[in-house]
From TrEMBL:
Domain of life according to the entry: Bacteria
Keywords: Ligase
GO molecular function: ligase activity
Keyword Ligase: yes
InterPro entries for this protein: DUF1407/YfgJ-like_sf (IPR029037), YfgJ-like (IPR010807)
UniProt name for this protein: DNA ligase
Source organism (scientific name): Photobacterium aquimaris
Amino acid sequence: MSENICPQCESELSWKDQGYFCDYCQQKVTKTAFCPDCSEQLEKLQACGSASYFCNHCNELKSKSRVKSVFNVVAD
């Protein structure tokens, strides 16, 4: 099962127009990553096809497997 689940209806999200989209709710959804150590929002660094996360508060890279991801429906 996918880890990309709609926070409103719990159906699987699809990728549409450079972002997540819930086909059931017909809503755009954002994904935000938070530091597993200090809970601050992380900066996503993307290069050469891979993604890493950096915490400006801890001043260090964070493992993608430890990152806490939160999905939110975008308000119109």
